[in-house]
Amino acid sequence: MPRVPHDVLPPDPFADDPDDPAAGLDAFDDEPDEPINAQARAELLADLSDLAVYQALLEPRGVRGIVVDCGECDQPHYHDWNLLRASLEQLLSDGRMRPHEPAYDPDPADYVSWDYCRGFADGVTATESAY
């Protein structure tokens, strides 16, 4: 995302304030990201390719995206197709995913798991190969 030039922003109300509450936030931007290795890059590219197929097959059927069970908070996370694609592309380019706004009040019936997507795509492929 392009940054807004400083000359068009309002003045910083905490400029030169030693107790600036946001003073330590700049350190987070300077943390170097470790580049992803070739295997992880190949896996991400495969995931992006698979995601495009899954979206093409399932979005017309009303599926809004993919649900992922989070290992950190033990809660399901609902990702719309475009959000998941953007997150994977960011991981590919930056080596990490930045925080994002979660889906607002998602209907779990509108989301499926990655395994469901894979099985659905395999079923479509097998059906088409039979004819």
Would you give an account of this structure?
It is a single chain. This protein has 131 residues and is mainly alpha-helical. It has helices at residues 26-29, 38-58, 81-94, 114-130, and strands at 65-69, 76-80, 111-112. Strands 2-1-3 form a three-stranded mixed beta sheet. Strand 1 and strand 2 (76-80) form a beta hairpin. The longest helix is centred in the middle third of the chain and has 21 residues, at 38-58. It is elongated and about 70 Å long. The N and C termini lie far apart (46 Å).
Range of helix content: 40-55%
Label the structural class: mainly alpha
- Largest beta sheet: what is the strand line-up? 2-1-3
| Residue runs with pLDDT of under 50 for 5 or more positions | none
Query: How many helices in DSSP terms?
Result: 4
In short, what is this structure?
This protein is 43% helix and 9% strand.
Present the secondary structure layout.
Blueprint: H1 26-29, H2 38-58, E1 65-69, E2 76-80, H3 81-94, E3 111-112, H4 114-130
